[in-house]
Amino acid sequence: MSTPRAVAKVVRAIEQAEGAGARVRRSIGTRQQRNFSPFLMLDHFATTAGFPDHPHRGQETITYLLKGVVDHEDFAGNAGTLYEGDLQFMTAGRGIVHAEMPRKQPDGSQNVGLQLWVDLPKELKYCEPRYRDLRAAEIPKVDVDDGRVTVKVISGQSHGVDSVKELAYTPVWLLDFQLRPGAKVTQALPRGWNAFAYVLDGDVTVGEGAEAKKAEQYDNVFFKQEGDVIQLSTEASATKDARVFVIAGTPLDQPVVQYGPFVLNSQEEVMQTFADYQTHENGFERAKSWRSQIGDRVY
Predict the structure, then answer these.
(1) What CATH number does the domain containing 72 carry?
(2) CA distance 223 to 10
(3) pLDDT of 256 strictly over 90
(4) 98 a known binding residue?
(5) Which residues pair with 97 in a beta bridge?
(6) Ranges for the Pirin C-terminal domain (predicted)?
(7) Sign of CA dihedral 90, 92, 96, 102
(8) Is the pLDDT of residue 21 over 90?
(9) Which of 8, 44, 75, 94 could form a disulfide with 25 if both were Cys (CB 3.0 to 4.6 A apart)?
């Protein structure tokens, strides 16, 4: 018998400034929800501004572009472009400096997406940086509840459909749900993993009966670890679809010491990282004379 997961808390993502004039809604990495292992931060961005040259160490970032076009470039010579529906998985490892800059849209509209920071296991904190791209056309889909629900299986499994490949070092599931009016779906999740559901658009009911919780756009619903399924539904009278991003990951049994873009396991490691970045050593050697071609882009 499956056991539904109860809701632990609901956090509303409040808009704030980030980068060079960008605006983001952050629901992990705040006072209300500091960390949710292995997850360090979740930003829902809608912006015409970007994120010029900046460093990382000790984590992975997953960027999911929902609308627009975003270019990226780093000090190792990697460069590329994300289009609507594409994802990029970047492992910072021992050190990376990069820029992420949106392109100006012909109609002046904003570039919209999600960026999730995932902690790296202690033994992989100083691995070599790497990128893996996942294009929208590669993502398998499954329709359930007589077509009232469509799931994009970015990573993990849903209703008999497996994702294309493993893209992150830390095991995570990423599922993009579209629920039409009157939809109802039950999603299995790995036991013992931490899981949450972020509402990108519309309204959704999480759970059933007396335990049900209503969630609106920009709400992040955090689940308790006990149980192995979650339930999502929409009202038959809803005037538009709901879109919900369900994310789960294996918790890491390790301390988290974070200072901005540096995420290590001790204060000493963070201080050493600042020294490495300033002196261009131990992974940051290429930062000394590098500047991106896109970081100064202004519209």
Answers:
(1) 2.60.120.10
(2) 9
(3) yes
(4) yes
(5) 55
(6) 175-282
(7) positive
(8) no
(9) 44
CA quadruple 297, 286, 120, 7: dihedral, nearest 10: -10
- The per-residue pLDDT for 48 is 81
pLDDT at 49: 82
What is the mean predicted confidence (pLDDT) over 196-221? 96
276 forms bridges with which residues in the sheet? none
Beta strands 69-74 and 96-102: pairing type?
antiparallel
Specify the pLDDT at position 82: 97
In a domain, 291, yes or no: no
Helix or strand holding residue 274 (H, E): helix 267-279
- Report CA 146 to chain centroid distance, whole Å: 29
Q: Is residue 21 part of a domain?
A: yes
Residue tagged 């963070």 (tokens): 270
Name the band, by pLDDT with cuts 50, 70 and 90, for residue 57.
very high
Is the per-residue pLDDT at 19 higher than 80? no
pLDDT for residue 114 is more than 80:
yes
* Total residue length of the chain: 299
Total number of domains constituting the chain: 1
Q: Provide the token pair at 251.
A: 């918790």
54 in a known ligand binding site? yes
Does residue 293 lie within any of the structural domains? Answer: no
**Dihedral sign of CA atoms 32, 95, 278, 18 in order:** negative
Q: Sheet holding 79-83: strands in order across?
A: 51-56, 96-102, 69-74, 79-83
CA–CA dist 76, 183 (Å, integer): 46
In a domain, 244, yes or no: yes
Q: What is the dihedral of CA 219, 131, 192, 183, to 10 degrees?
A: 40
- Quick one: which of 167, 198, 189, 164 has its CA closest to 60? 167
Please, how many CA atoms are within 13 Å of residue 83, restricted to the half-sphere of its CB?
Answer: 4
Are 119 and 109 within 8 A, CB to CB?
Answer: no
**Sole residue written with tokens 């060079």:** 20
Supply the pLDDT for residue 20: 62
Residue 299 has pLDDT above 60, yes or no: no
Pairing verdict, β 172-179 and 204-206: unpaired
73 is an annotated ligand-binding site residue: no
